């Protein structure tokens, strides 16, 4: 190879390396792309005060360590209330978590579930009871604001007949959330199994998740 060709080859290689370097991303930029976030809000519809625990899922250890003190993200949440939202950051490759609900006072009431996250998930974690058995469900938050009506969807612990303005609309399914329903009257527009559901603490136009049992409304949470 003559000297001029060799010099041209070196120049081309240097230029190519420079282009790659210019188009490359810093480690911080790559790290940001690999870091995801989820938001978690705890709804406690149990009959006792409870804590919500969250821990990264490790396939080899299962639920081990889930109920350690350093995994609590919502503490002493009163019965039939909603806690503030917790923001959880994680690496994209570590998108499986364990969630556990535990009685804040005693140590013999624990429920757990595993959830695979997607970036920017906004989740309700619902602790509920049916036929004496307690469980935990995870559903996505979902707004459906519509002016001049109450916009509600129902999460029920059983199969109940739902009436709007005294007209049968749907039947709930145990452990599943309904589509949104529009209710005109806060006092007597929504009836579940012959019980009127009071929505008057809410606002017209806003969206709500209602946790329902055979006695009626347990929790009303704004979406």
Largest sheet: 5 strands, mixed
Gyration radius, to the nearest Å?
25 Å
Query: Would you report the number of β strands?
Result: 17
The number of helical runs is 2
Beta-strand residue percentage: over 45%
Mean pLDDT figure = 89
H-E order: HHEEEEEEEEEEEEEEEEE
**Oligomeric state, counting identical vs distinct chains:** single chain
Class from helix and strand fractions = mainly beta
Helix content: 10-25%
Distance between the termini: 72 Å
Shape by Cα distribution: globular
Unreliable residue stretches: 10-23
How do you describe this structure in short?
The protein is mostly beta strands.
How would you describe this protein?
- The longest helix has 21 residues, at 3-23.
- Residues 10-23 have low confidence and may be disordered.
- This protein has helices spanning 3-23, 27-34; strands spanning 35-44, 50-56, 72-77, 81-82, 86-91, 96-103, 110-116, 121-130, 133-140, 150-156, 161-164, 167-171, 181-183, 190-192, 195-196, 207-213, 216-222.
- The chain is globular and about 55 Å long.
- Helices cover 13% and strands 46% of the residues.
- The protein is mainly β and 223 residues long.
- The protein contains 2 helices and 17 strands.
- The strands form 4 sheets. Strands 1, 4, 5, 8 and 9 form a 5-stranded mixed β-sheet that branches. A 4-stranded antiparallel β-sheet has the order 3-2-6-7, with no helix packed on it. A 4-stranded mixed β-sheet has the order 13-10-16-17, with no helix packed on it.
- It comes from Pseudoalteromonas fuliginea.
- This is Lipoprotein.
């Amino acid at each position: 190879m003559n000297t001029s060709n060799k010099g041209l080859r070196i120049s081309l290689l240097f230029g190519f390396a420079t282009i790659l370097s210019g188009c490359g991303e810093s480690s911080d930029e790559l790290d940001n792309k690999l870091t995801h976030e989820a938001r978690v809000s705890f709804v406690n519809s149990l009959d006792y005060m409870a804590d919500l625990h969250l821990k990264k899922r490790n396939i080899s250890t299962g639920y081990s360590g889930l109920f350690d003190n350093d995994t609590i993200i919502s503490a002493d949440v009163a019965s039939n209330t909603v806690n503030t939202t917790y923001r959880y950051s994680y690496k994209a490759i570590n998108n499986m978590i364990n969630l556990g609900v535990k009685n804040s006072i005693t140590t013999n009431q624990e429920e757990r579930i595993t959830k695979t996250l997607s970036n920017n998930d906004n989740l309700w974690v619902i602790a509920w009871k049916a036929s004496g058995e307690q469980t935990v469900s995870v559903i996505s938050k979902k707004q459906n604001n519509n002016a001049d009506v109450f916009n509600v969807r129902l999460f029920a612990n059983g199969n109940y007949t739902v009436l709007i303005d005294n007209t049968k609309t749907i039947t709930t399914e145990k452990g599943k959330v309904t589509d949104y329903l529009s209710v005109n009257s806060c006092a007597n527009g929504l009836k579940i199994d012959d019980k009127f559901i009071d929505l008057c603490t809410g606002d017209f136009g806003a969206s709500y998740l209602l946790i329902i049992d055979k006695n009626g409304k347990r929790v009303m949470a704004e979406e």
